[in-house]
Specification:
single chain; 342 residues; alpha/beta; nine-stranded mixed β-sheet; six-stranded parallel β-sheet
């Protein structure tokens, strides 16, 4: 069993981690650091409660620490955990600047520990479908790739993610997903340009962005808006053979919010389809979207810890993602395209 400690017990821990830890036979959640003792006692009564990470690392005899706290705390908490000889699963965004990420990788390598970024949306059903279509060459050479993660949230909420601060705002929150998926598919770009704005009244952090990754042979356009009503476009992928498009978001997050168990046969089954438009005569073909499977990340991480297999996410990928977000911010502020030099 992988003795697991969880740092932070808010939405991310309860929604994206605990449901999978609870059913996977290799994980044993034995300790939690939180400011809410009653909530921990209700949701995970078998776990020991700690008010700070120092006590947990000293007393709980952990193999793995999962960090789900506010973004600006990620570096310090991950560093402490690695130096206590624990593997680390670190929520996105990995860190708030790329230099921190490189330092964590150095510590993990020196300690012989796994440092795994939590980029769960590599296992979204719509993204898995896009990846499969590209790999099968059904689209041909991709020339324009558009990825949108929009919401209808016209009013600022009193949450740390929407307040001013290092690593806050939608660019780091949702942008970290879109960038990770794009770099996973296409590798590093030549340059980055972006417009990042605090668009809503009273907004103190970026809540809208349009970011472009420039490649020699393609353009990758990433967008997020707080004003999109209804089921908006998620992916539009234009190739020299065909175009794929789909709308709406992967269903797994909503199912987790609704309490659908991850062992349910309907978990991850998408409720919408994609469309493939082929050639100049526009032959249309409905595409059933792949099952989403966030559980694969946990299964792969367990295998890496217990059997020495390759971890599900390379931390260096996450550092490149943070660097891309840094370039986007610089490009937006300067009003120019920034060269990729990582």
């Amino acid at each position: 069993m992988i003795r697991t400690g969880i740092v932070g017990f808010g939405f991310a821990a309860q929604t994206f981690h605990l449901p999978f830890l609870s059913i996977h036979p290799d994980f044993e959640p034995v300790a939690v650091v939180s400011s809410n003792h009653d909530l921990v006692a209700e949701k995970l009564p078998s776990a020991a409660y700690y008010s700070n990470i120092e006590e947990m690392l000293r007393d709980a005899e952990l193999d793995l620490v999962i960090i789900t706290t506010p973004n600006h705390t990620h570096f310090d908490l991950a560093k402490q955990s690695l130096e206590a000889d624990c593997h680390v699963l670190l929520e996105k965004p990995f860190v708030v600047n790329s230099g921190q990420g490189l330092e964590l990788i150095k510590i993990a390598n020196a300690r012989g520990k796994i440092l795994c970024p939590y980029q769960n949306r590599r296992w979204d059903g719509d993204f898995l479908t896009v990846k499969a279509l590209i790999e099968s060459d059904e689209l041909g050479q991709v020339r324009v790739f558009e990825s949108n993660f929009d919401r209808f949230r016209p009013e600022v909420r009193q949450r740390w993610r929407e307040q001013a601060g290092e690593g806050s705002g939608i660019l780091y929150d949702l942008g970290s997903h879109l960038v990770d998926q794009s770099l996973h598919l296409f590798g590093s770009p030549l340059a980055v340009s972006a417009h990042c704005k605090a668009m809503r009244p009273q907004s103190q952090a970026t809540d809208y962005f349009k970011m472009t990754l420039h490649y020699a042979d393609k353009e990758v356009v990433l967008n997020s808006s707080p004003y999109r009503s209804g089921k908006g476009s998620r992916f539009v992928v234009q190739g020299d053979k065909a175009t794929f498009s789909c709308a709406g978001l992967d269903i797994q997050e909503q199912q987790l919010r609704d309490g659908v168990t991850v062992t349910n046969s309907e978990f991850g089954r998408q409720q919408h389809i994609g469309k493939l438009e082929i050639g100049d005569n526009v032959t249309e073909k409905d595409i059933e979207l792949e099952h989403g499977c966030y559980s694969e990340l946990f299964a792969s991480l367990a295998s890496a810890i217990l059997n020495g297999t390759t971890p599900p996410i390379d931390p260096y990928d996450a550092v490149k993602g943070i660097y891309a977000l840094e370039l986007a911010q610089h490009a937006s502020e300067a009003g120019k395209t920034e060269r990729w030099e990582f």
